[in-house]
Amino acid sequence: MNFLDSIFENLQRRGDSIVLREIRDGQFLDVSGRDFLKLVSQARKFLGGLNLNKSDRCGLLAPNSIRWMALDLALISEGLIVVPLYTRQAPRELSSMIQDSSPTAIFASDESLFAEIRRVSDDCPAFTPLDKVFGSEENLPLEKTACEESDPVSIIYTSGTSGEPKGVVLREGNIRHMLQCTNARLDVLMAGSREPERIFHYTPFCFAASWIAMLTFLSRNSVVTLSTDLSKLPEELKLASPDYFLNVPTLLERVRAKITETIHKRRGVLPAIFKRAQNCFFNSGRGSWLEKMCLSSARRVMFPEIHKAIGPNLKALICGSAPLAEETQRFFMMLGIPVLQVYGLTETTAICTMDDPRDFEPGKVGAAIPGVEMKAGENGEILVRGPNIFAGYWRRPEETAKALEGGWFHTGDQGEVDDKGKWRITGRLKNLLVLNSGHKFAPEPLELALANKLPAAQQVVVIGNQRSYPAALITTSSANGIASDRVQAIVEQMNMSLPHYQQIRAFHIIHEPFSIENGLLTANGKIKRDEVAARYSAEIDRLYQRPPA
Question: How far apart are CA 523 and CA 54, in angstroms?
Fold first, then answer.
């Protein structure tokens, strides 16, 4: 049975029970299993009238919605290949992806965005509004899906941090194996808990991890609440009251900073108690008698209240897409909320490792999922093989062969594995800094450490390739900025525990965060290091013209 038929069987069993919700103006828009299957059938009927052929590509350019999900499943059911596109991406980048994948049809929700794409594109098919797809009111029977194990079902474009985005071809067999693994892990998390489980979802479906999460949720006895306004996440989260939800590190860092800032503004002894309790917890329960007393008191009163404010039913936060600071993971654990990490790439069907809720360690991303092998290759590069590995890059045979050299997928990430098989991600091979002294090191640990000590910093980029020493670019959106002497003091403190070649000798503060809109972040929030280096080349040159600190 393919993964679609499994999902449809689950939805049929759910019948008139609510399976999906959208939050609109603070209210729930509910859809039952039966209603959702009707939407899928309506979309399949519409597609049947478009004279499409099996394996034709179809673009899907719209924000998250229940209709997005229904059309996605309908397209795959008809043997078509879905090309999900991100609405916040620059029109020129979207145009490039459309030209590369050459879709026969594009389904979109925003006519103005599509008009911008057409202005920068010489060859772009007409778009079909999503509303038009679901015009039928007939109660149609559920048809058999035309989807086999070897069939490509989606082309998802990589983020393109160091070059042009590439289309990653994922097959039915990739998805089916992954859903078995994700469901098994969630069964462990939710063992003995209420049904249906409640899930909140805000990450865009056009990214592999979010898409796999969505398919997993549809195959479970769950109620999924979709966010429709990222500016209202706190309010929507309270309405959804989830058991768990998928996160990116940026959000968890912001939540942590907000909690810390709020407590520090409180009057009386609470800020001092919180600080001492945190110091004791981060030191594995060791500390002075006062710190131990503060930790004990905070565990009884303060931490449960914060937990309740974030989500009274939260059993875990699931986090992936980028490195998460170990201190942030420990912070939420201190509040009684486990943060379970997931590591993977689009090419690995989003996942290679998943933390086990019964046995996980802060700073590590867990062991390889069942059926998947991982090992460290040259320069500590993580190599992966198994049923989760993609079919190849769309129309890029040479790059596919290079990525799969020797029968292993070369991730480009660096990592270390312990004797229990748990992995720690240490850096990105392409980001490796090579000083003119010959010393090599990954910049990510330094960036995380510095950002963690500077709550007002939005991003930190450590530079120094072919230079004599490392330096840092620090962005901030704070109205008051970041004081240079504060940065200097933190840098000097960090340098004391670093080898000489990793010590940061200069820094530059930028009063505009990197963003998708200014072209310095990828669609899923990763820093375009080459673009940053080019944009701030003059400032970087000045950092190396002054005597190092």
Answer: 29
Six-digit token string for 443:
């910049």
Task: Tell me how far apart the alpha carbons of residues 304 and 310 are, in angstroms, rounded to a whole number.
Answer: 10
Cβ proximity of 189 and 357 under 8 Å: yes
What CATH number does the domain containing 206 carry? 3.40.50.12780
- Burial class, 293, CB count within 10 angstroms (exposed 0-12 / middle 13-18 / buried 19+): middle
Two structure tokens written together for 74: 């309908």
User: Do 254 and 228 touch, CB atoms closer than 8 A?
Assistant: no
The answer to whether residue 548 is domain-embedded is: no
| Choice among 55-69, 168-182, 418-432 with the minimum mean pLDDT | 418-432
Helix (H, G, I), strand (E, B) or coil at 321: coil
Report pLDDT digits (tens) over 185-217. Answer: 999 999 988 789 999 999 999 999 999 999 999
Residue 466 in 3-state DSSP?
Answer: coil
Question: pLDDT value at position 515?
Answer: 87
Please state the separation of Cα 159 from the chain's center in Å.
11
Is the Cβ–Cβ distance between 524 and 157 less than 8 Å?
Answer: no
- Tell me the pLDDT band of 354, cut-offs 50, 70 and 90: very high
Q: 266 is in which domain, residue-wise?
A: 249-312+314-429
CB atoms near residue 374 (< 10 Å): 23
* Nearest residue to 233 via CA among 199, 198, 202, 197: 202
Residue with tokens 């309790």: 277
Strand partners, 32: 18
Output the domain CATH number for residue 474: 3.30.300.30
Report the chain's C-alpha Rg in angstroms.
24
Burial degree of 534 (CB within 10 A; 0-12, 13-18, 19+): exposed
What is this structure's pTM?
A: 0.88
Give the span between the Cα atoms of 402 and 365, in whole angstroms: 26
Condensed to tens digits (0 to 9), the pLDDT of residues 51-77 reads 999 999 999 999 999 999 999 999 999
What DSSP designation does 231 have? Answer: G
